[in-house]
Specification:
about 240 residues, alpha/beta, Carbamate kinase, 7-stranded mixed β-sheet, two-stranded antiparallel sheet
Length: about 240
């Protein structure tokens, strides 16, 4: 197993898989993960690190915990992390059932993740640390694995110049610099357990420091395919210039 892949000599991409895409009010998005498995199997020389978010299920669990009297943000963060790990476990098993060579265990830290690099085609993880979203966890994973690209997959494939839920004149952004993403993320990131933002401001700053290109795509698997292959895609691209 360890000799099948060649570490840094092949392409390695980190995917931040939005929890709302994995687990919505209607349940687990089996169809998308099966499509993802088919695409991954078609990419013979690429390894993937997939970091899973919490989504609708996570927000409902946090809401229930608060209603039950839990007030500690650190404990609510830990609950949220466990939900992301459950999502990751389901994603891992569905990928495996569809022929993907996937890591046998969900890594709980970037150190444990690093130990799997180069040994499996796909590593699937949930959250690592309290106080951030899985976007930041994905950037930390990308740094640990020396990835040059992160693809953020969610229900919304674009970053807008302002919150489209509040402003009808919000405009899609095709290209952004790191500084522009940091500004937009900072305006919307309230730093609360179970929050739903387009990108964590910490994640934006970490991506900038390591010059990791960030691509945002929606739920159409073809957009992810195009982003991975470096082709024009529906969504936002973030890089230095």
């Amino acid at each position: 197993m360890a000799d099948k892949y060649y570490g840094d000599s092949i392409n390695r991409i980190c995917v931040s898989l939005g929890g709302s895409l994995i687990m919505g009010p209607e349940g687990f998005n089996t169809k998308y993960v099966q499509e993802l498995a088919k695409f991954i199997n078609s990419q013979k020389s690429t390894e993937f690190i997939i970091v899973c978010g919490g989504g609708h299920f996570c927000r409902e669990v946090i809401k229930s915990a608060r209603a039950g009297g839990v007030t500690s943000n650190i404990e609510l963060d830990r609950i949220a992390i466990e939900v992301t790990r459950l999502n990751a476990y389901v994603v891992k098993e569905v990928l495996k059932a569809n022929g993907v060579e996937v890591v046998p265990y969900i890594p709980l830290t970037t150190d444990s993740l690093r130990g799997f690099i180069g040994k499996y085609k796909v590593i699937v993880a949930g959250g690592f640390v309290e106080g951030v979203t899985t976007d930041t966890d994905a950037v930390l994973a990308a740094e640990a694995a020396m990835c040059k690209m992160i693809i953020n997959v969610g229900r919304i494939g674009y970053v807008y110049d302002k919150d489209p839920k509040k402003y009808s004149d919000a405009k899609k952004q095709k290209m952004l610099t790191y500084d522009e993403l940091i500004r937009i993320a900072g305006e919307n990131d309230k730093r609360m357990p179970g929050s739903n933002v387009i990108f964590d401001v910490f994640a934006a700053k970490l991506a900038a420091r390591s010059e990791i290109e960030v691509k945002f795509v929606g739920e159409d698997i073809k957009a992810l395919e195009a982003a991975v292959l470096g082709k024009p895609h529906d969504g936002t691209t973030v890089k230095a210039h």
